[in-house]
Design brief:
six-stranded antiparallel β-barrel, 6 helices, 2 domains
């Protein structure tokens, strides 16, 4: 792998689990209304706090959702209100002390990965974007969280499209090879590419 020092250093590093969790919370618990006038800072701060305090286990009915006025979607909202979102969504420590991390220390069988691919596809069909922990434990070549939002299935593979907090400009590509019963993650700026182990977090009691 090649590493390049960022200058200036990133001010919001090691927040992948926070960002992935928050993205799913906005998907489940927020409703964007671009036709309404934009609100003041305190209104948006209160709305963000309300959204990120809600449980990921609760699907969130339309009438219960927090209204975000003046923006069409989370991408537009985050561009305009970057500082507020960084201040209110949570600290980097939440990426390290996430209850579901216990799973990565145990071996991942091919049967487990096969069941996981089926589980992730089923979640997407229910419009419930799963958050996945992508690892190569005990190697530290990758230890990362992403949100899957689409899947394309063929006889040979399932290609998942993901929101990657490290590279939000375009979808990341996570592929499950059926004959190998193995996940593969494409090469990018922080991972050399290759086989990875995958499991869903913020799922059932894995909080």
């Amino acid at each position: 792998m090649k590493h390049r020092r960022r200058e200036p250093p990133p001010a919001y590093a090691r927040h992948c689990f926070v960002m992935a969790r928050s993205a799913r919370q906005f998907h489940q618990h927020a409703r964007f209304e671009p036709g309404r006038p934009q609100a003041d800072e305190q209104t948006y701060r209160r709305a963000i706090r309300d959204v990120v305090s809600r449980s990921l286990r609760h699907e969130g009915h339309e009438g219960e959702k927090i209204v975000i006025p003046g923006y069409a979607n989370l991408f537009a909202f985050s561009q305009a209100q970057e500082r507020l979102l960084k201040e209110e969504c949570g600290g980097a420590w939440q990426s390290y002390f996430q209850r579901g991390h216990w799973r990565m220390v145990f071996p991942f069988s091919r049967r487990h990965q096969e069941k996981m691919a089926v589980q992730l596809s089923a979640a997407l069909r229910r419009n419930r974007p799963p958050i996945v922990h992508v690892v190569r434990f005990p190697s530290q070549t990758i230890n990362h969280a992403m949100v899957l939002f689409d899947a394309r299935e063929t006889e040979d593979e399932i290609e998942f499209a993901a929101y990657d907090p490290n590279s939000a400009g375009e979808p990341a590509r996570l592929v499950y090879a059926r004959h190998e019963r193995t996940f593969h993650f494409a090469r990018n700026a922080y991972f050399k590419g290759g086989r990875v182990d995958v499991y869903e977090v913020y799922h059932r009691l894995n909080y």
